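ok new one. same drill as before - structure tokens go in, u give me an amino acid for every spot. 154 of them this time. try not to just spam alanines like last time pls lmao
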């Protein structure tokens, strides 16, 4: 296995994305982002606008992260600094989007807590979605910081 500090100055390809930092965060981002997507899709959509934003962010980030991971796994990036910059920019945008979606989902969940016993199941699902959404935000944030460090080391 290669040392993570020695590989910070280049972009991995193939199975290297599963062993180098920050690329090791792709799979957890996909897993937790998919959980947010599933949990929000299975809840009661009382205020449709904030829930729609959460769905849009989770679906967009899930698809783009998967595409981004495939591009890196196939080696289509040619180990250029512009790809490192694009990696940083994408993860920064995903972090901002997920932070706004997590905050609005937490607000909607808080408003559901005042509902009756009929909404209790949806409230539990929304709590789980909020937790996974903030975990996904944290993963994207860590990936953003580490991508910025890698970009600057080019």
């Amino acid at each position: 296995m290669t040392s993570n500090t020695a590989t910070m100055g280049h972009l991995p390809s193939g199975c290297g994305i599963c062993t180098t930092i920050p690329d090791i965060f792709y799979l957890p981002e996909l897993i937790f982002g998919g959980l947010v997507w599933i949990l929000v899709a299975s809840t009661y959509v009382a205020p449709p606008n904030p829930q729609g934003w959460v769905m849009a962010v989770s679906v967009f980030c899930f698809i783009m992260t998967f595409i981004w991971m495939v591009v890196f796994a196939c080696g289509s990036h040619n180990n250029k600094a512009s790809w490192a910059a694009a990696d940083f920019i994408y993860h920064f945008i995903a972090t901002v989007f997920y932070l706004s979606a997590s905050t609005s989902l937490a607000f909607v969940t808080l408003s559901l807590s005042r509902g009756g016993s009929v909404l209790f199941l949806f409230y539990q699902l929304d709590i789980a979605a909020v937790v996974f959404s903030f975990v996904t935000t944290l993963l994207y944030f860590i990936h953003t910081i580490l991508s910025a460090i890698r970009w600057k080391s080019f």
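The helical segments are 26-41, 48-74, 81-112, 120-152. and btw The two ends are 21 Å apart (CA to CA).
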